[in-house]
Amino acid sequence: MLNIMLGFLPWILYFIFLGYNLHILAISAALAVTVLLSFDELKKGFILTWGTLLFFLLLFGITFFTSFDWLTLHADLIASYALASIAGFSLLINKPFTLQYARKQVPKEFWKSEIFIRINQWITGVWTTSFLINAFIDSLQFYTAFNPWFYQTISYLPIVCAVWFTQTFPDWYKEKKSRQLIEQSELAQKNNPFLQQNFAPITQELERCNLSITGVLPKDLLGIYVRNGPNPLFPPFSYTYPFDGDGMLHALYFKEGQVTYKNRFVDTAQLQVERRLGKAIYGGVELPFIRDQKLLKPTDPSLPIKIGRFIHVIRHANHYLALHEATSAYEIDAQLNTIGEWNPTNAAEAIALNAHTRRDPQTGELFTIAYGIQSLITYHVFDKEGKLIKHGIINVQHNYMVHDFVITHHYVVIFLCPVIVDFMAQMKGKHFATWEPQLSTRIAVLSRAHLDKEIIWINSEAFFCFHFANAYEQKQKIIIDYIRYPDFMMADLKPAFLYRTTLNLLQKTAYHQQLDDRNVEFPRINDHYTGNQHRYIYTPVYLPSAATSSDIYHALIKYDLNTNSSIVHDFGQDVEISEAVYVPANQSKQEDDGYLMLFTYHKTTKKSLFVILDAQNFASSPLAIIKLPQRVPHGLHGSWLPGSW
């Protein structure tokens, strides 16, 4: 509001001086204020400022061809019509003059939103109308006999109304529009497939000991398997899988041949607000609104998007961390109780990190990256004790979505695929993440020794990658295995395949090779081989069948990259699975001397089991099947956390 009123300052001064019959001084003061105080707005092409300048220059010229008495007599009428013309012209060319002032107070990501533009169209329209009403009132003075002070008094009313409208309309309109969008979206959730069947959330938090085991549990298992996933506690009014929801951790504790199950919500500050109010309050990536804003306390989180910390869970330096994307982690304890936001540096704002981190098995260092909305990628490196030892910023040209990355002995490699994030995109009728292939894919190679030095940039054709398996060095080349999509269309996500990319650091080239033609995702390796040459990759796979139209994973593949072969463990069409985590056997000597652990869902019984496979006898029957006390919805990523807890 203040910015708009400053735009009217030349006009206000003009009328003040005009009241003392100082016509030339009035025009001169208006011109001086326009040039001196609004020079930056002139450079930026502000319509009101330029209109003001041109009007007073024209008025200054007219003074040499007509009498001051005539101009003084008609000054109010002329000025009102001039302001109405300027404001009306800005509407005519679809650039409401108030929009330019509003941008000074509103973050850039909102500038193209339909709501922001529509609000300013209304406000500019009201100002245009108020100026026209004033012009009409000024005209009446020449045809009626009322006291001039009467007209001057009532001429303030349209301006007062315009000021009041400018102050109150944006909040009213945003609340009205958000309420409409929320109601529409809430109805749509009834048919959301990712809130049904085994994607349907559960609300019960359990702990059960001595679970029933079929088969033989490996005697060397001591540790926790824990998996994270989206699980809204309250029915959401906006839900885009796998980007929205509350975090729920499911854990199995292995000790002395016995297994305990436990599940807990990640109790974020936003979830605590919703628990207090008894309903979903925060929106999602496709609808970033807060429902019933007036119910929030001043200390409650004000971010309109639910950040549930539901994507991954890791342990580093004895800190158990529930991870999200491009935001802070939440720390939990070994019993899955939420401690709070993880702030290892005790800074005013906690470190942001992505869901995927990379730990060097030789040094114990943990590498993290995060993207945001400011065309930046941040990186942090923690030593094995959890101390921050390196951090910095990579300036990139766009708000790339960078979900994962890889490390080698000497390098950090980041793929900048042309998926651009805009959390205000819903207001523009778009998805929050858009595919822009004209940007191509850029690959950044950073030296681990000098992360802040020059980056090796390698250009490639456009493609998208969510997840990497691993990377390692071969002389002046880097070998990277990952899952590749030909593009990224949210409404029609195409199959993804296992790929190998070879980076030639001297020539700055990338050679891409498809390794398989089956639709796979969630690659895992023996994490002891992170940054080293690996032989095996394990992924869930779609195996299409005429008997079912489901496209949910029901089998695992073990890829042998040395022999270019693979083995499939098919659980059958009645079973649905997701990521499997590799667990090395105690004192293992071979890369595949260990186990694969995963949750399975059985459609006929509508129950979940926990399965342990022998990685070396991959196609054989499971070593052990553990009966679970409740259904475990499909989730995202998990970890094996060895040792006592």
Automatic annotation (TrEMBL):
Keyword Oxidoreductase among UniProt keywords: yes
Residues bound to Fe cation: H356, H403, H467, H637
Cofactor annotation: Fe(2+)
MF-aspect GO terms: all-trans-8'-apo-beta-carotenal 15,15'-oxygenase activity; carotenoid dioxygenase activity; metal ion binding
GO biological process, one term: carotene catabolic process
EC numbers, comma separated: 1.13.11.75, 1.13.11.-
Residues that span the membrane, as ranges: 12-39, 46-65, 77-94, 115-137
Keywords noted in UniProt: Iron, Membrane, Metal-binding, Oxidoreductase, Transmembrane, Transmembrane helix
Pfam family, one: RPE65
Co-factor note (free text): Binds 1 Fe(2+) ion per subunit.
Similarity-based family: Belongs to the carotenoid oxygenase family.
Protein's name according to its UniProt entry: 8'-apo-beta-carotenal 15,15'-oxygenase
Protein's organism: Legionella gratiana
